[in-house]
Amino acid sequence: MVPLSFAPFQFAGQEWLLGPARALAWPEEQALLVADLHLEKASWFARTGQMLPPYDSRETLDRLAALVRHTGARRVFCLGDNFHDAHGPARLDPGAAERLAALVRAVDWVWITGNHDEKDGAPADDLIGGTMLREVMVRGVMLRHEAQGQEAGPELSGHFHPRLRVAARGRTVSRPCAVMSERKLILPAFGALTGGLDAAHPALLKAMQPARSITALVPTAARVAHFPLWQAAAA
Question: Domains, the chain, ranges and CATH?
Answer without folding.
Answer: 7-212 (3.60.21)
